[in-house]
Structure formats: C-alpha cells, structure tokens
Amino acid sequence: MENNLFIIGYGLSGGFGGIHDYEVIEAVDENEAEDCAYQAAVEYYENYVGSNGLRTVEEIMEEDDLDEESAEEEFNEERESWIEYVSMPYNEENLKKVDGYHLHNPYAKANGE
C-alpha cells in the first residue's frame, strides 16, 4: 500500500506564510496526488475569502466595476496567485521534510509509525 501513499501540502503565500499543513493520502499516481493537493489548497483559500484581503466575486465586481463573468475570472486569477501546494511520495526522507509542520497521517499506525 505504501507505493500508493503520498504526502500533500497546501497553504497560502504572502502573510499566510506558505504551506504549513500536510496530510498523507492514497492516490493512483503522482498526478492524482497533485490534483488532491491543488483541491486542498483551493478549499483552504475559500475558507479565507471575504477576509484577510482575499476578495469575493461580489467584492471584485463592486471594486473593479466588472460583470460577474469577468469578476469570476479575476477571482480565479487572484486565487491562483495565493495558493501553494505540493505532493511528494510517502517515504522516510519526505516525512523528515515535513517534520515540525502539522501532518495528518491516518496511515501512521498501519505502517508502525
């Protein structure tokens, strides 16, 4: 099973300080793990939308005088500029890289860690 395990990390750049949260997931391959990391970063971003300078679509429409479609495009561009994410194979070396950060590892007991 360990061959299908990956460590993903996600966070926000700037004043948020980058990636601080990691988790171990099961995925078919590196591409799927990276997709999971991206989705986790998007969800993390959306938790802060409307505060801390991260604008909602409605705020963009109002502040930039844009229609909804253009505001959604701007929202997506802003989101992409803030999110950070990474995926890496689950192994001892990569576990050391994330030591000291928040790591959710539901597979730790199964692997004797």
Give me a quick take on this structure.
With 113 residues, the protein is of the alpha+beta class. The protein is built from 4 helices and 4 strands; from the N terminus they run E-E-H-H-H-E-H-E.
Cα radius of gyration in angstroms: 17 Å
Question: Counting H and I runs of at least 4 residues, what is the number of helices?
Answer: 4
Percent helix, as a range, is: 40-55%
The protein's oligomeric status is single chain
Number of strands: 4
| Average of pLDDT | 93
Shape: elongated
For the biggest sheet, the summary is:
4 strands, mixed
User: Which structural class fits the helix and strand makeup?
Assistant: alpha+beta
Order of helices and strands: EEHHHEHE
Number of domains: 1
Widest sheet, order of strands? 3-1-2-4
Poorly predicted runs are none
Calculate the terminal CA-CA distance, rounded to whole Å. Answer: 15 Å
Structure overview:
This protein is an alpha+beta fold and 113 residues long. The chain has one domain (2-98). Helix content is 42%, strand content 24%. The protein has a four-stranded mixed beta sheet. α2 (57-64) packs across α3 (68-82). It is elongated and about 50 Å long. The mean pLDDT is 93.
